[in-house]
Amino acid sequence: MKKIAIDEIRLAGIDHQSLVNGPGLRKVFFSQGCKHHCFNCFNKETWPFTGGKVFKIKELLNDFSKESKYLDGVTLSGGDPIEQAEKFAILAKEIKKFKLNIWLYTGYKWEELLQKMKTDKNIEELLKNVDVVVDGKFVDKLKSTKHIYRGSSNQRLIDVKKTLKNKKIFEYILLKKGGKKDV
Question: What is the mean pLDDT of residues 120-134?
Fold first, then answer.
């Protein structure tokens, strides 16, 4: 695989107006490259690390600045953004300047991310700029439409700021219409 420059990122695609990848109207950056290869994954085209298209991060941010006033947040999905943690850390840090929330989907469990952070400071930098992590592989036999924003019931919505501050996992609580919790 040809190495890409520090100011570039490999994406499978971009959804400029999504209502299904986190709360509200969101822009979604789909990372190219995934090691998990979950059975019945709906994004198999994002698995190869050589697929997708290479973008200049600066150009993505230029486009983003025009759209940000209409957005409620940004989602980093995949593939798996952790596989390009350095690039997504740069992107997330810049997006945070627009005061939008950022969600990150990863096949890694939170506990695995903490281990990986010990040897890859880019993961720590990325997580410092993310509000919610949806962690864990998609497990087909646990597929769920009951749990919002998750493909399978094993996945957790983790409140990153609270979790990092308290050094224990705090799940992000979504309220359904009528004030009922969805956990």
Answer: 97
